[in-house]
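Forum > Structural Biology > Help requests

Title: Can anyone predict the 3D structure of Valine dehydrogenase?

Hi all, first post here. I have the sequence for Valine dehydrogenase but no way to get a structure on my laptop. I'd be grateful if someone could post the structure tokens.
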Amino acid sequence: MTSAATPVSGVFDRPTHHEQVVFFSDQHTGLKAIVGIFSTALGPALGGTRFYPYASEHDALTDVMNLSTGMAYKTALAGLPLGGGKAVIIGDPAAIKTPDLLRAYGRYIESLGGRYITACDVGTYVADMDIIGEETRYVTGRSVEHGGSGDSSVMTAYGVFQGMRASAEFRWGSPSLAGKRVGIAGVGKVGRLLAEHAVKDGAKVYVTDVNHAAVHQLRQAHPDVEAVADTATLISGDIDIYAPCALGGALTTETVAQLRANIVCGAANNQLAHPGVDEQLAARRILYAPDYLVNAGGVIQVEDELQGFDPDRARAKTLRIFDTAQEVFTLAAAANITPAKAADQIAEKRIADAQQHSRPRNDRLVNR
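Reply #1:
Sure, ran it for you. Structure tokens for Valine dehydrogenase below:
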């Protein structure tokens, strides 16, 4: 998707309409949830559940609409037989998340009959998916003990690393990060693992995070990693690759103007804060690896659960992100468009072709 945070005042208030948006509430547990299904043309809509204290229902709706659209593009670009969906639970998970609330949520997911399959996202974890799975078949990202693949951040980070290697080859002629300076904003579950991949590949890594404990933990394991005070310092510093790995909207007009990196390739969703940022990156000759292309490793991993998880098979699928990134960059150069628009074109064509030739399918689900 070429831009993030598209405001919505209503469910139908978008250029491309969602198939279904469902509001769920449970008075007993305090559950307030929204599920957005953008498309099931390629298969059942898969996407994580975000548990977050939104300031308003409008903000929650905007987020679920944007995120579910992004998931549809992500699964299509990754070549997966899945559509795109997303869910949000409104509230502070530290205050209101309980097993009863998660079970109530699972019952509502079950009621959708497989049109939507959930997984982990911000504020939800493998243990939560196990509880949700007590009430529904339509959940992935579960623990190995419960038939799942465990933490999907492992494959997400591996996929972003492959996107980074592909970007390096397209820009500098070699897929190696050896000697390159990589700046990572956000070293949570994915950013920490991405930093480790970059270090092992010979990069000099600089990191920042509002959670100073996360930075300290990473530097204990990898003392050569250098901590930077904040994101503003990181992006204006002398780095070759910038990896936004925190929340969305990281690339604004202001940040692009200050950015000194040659490549942007990170794990955060919806990195382009508004339309036109991709053009601003291109005008500054900064190669942008579209976020939903390179961070697809997590959805590739949980999709593999639907076949009975095989880590080697999932890793092989995630490795293809390297090739897909090269395809996107080549199309962008040939058509004189940005990589973001090239990725959108590929994804939109796959969805449109599926809409013309098939009907939604929910037959790939694992019986548990």
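The chain has two domains: 20-142, 153-298+314-337. The longest strand covers residues 31-39.
Shout if anything looks off.
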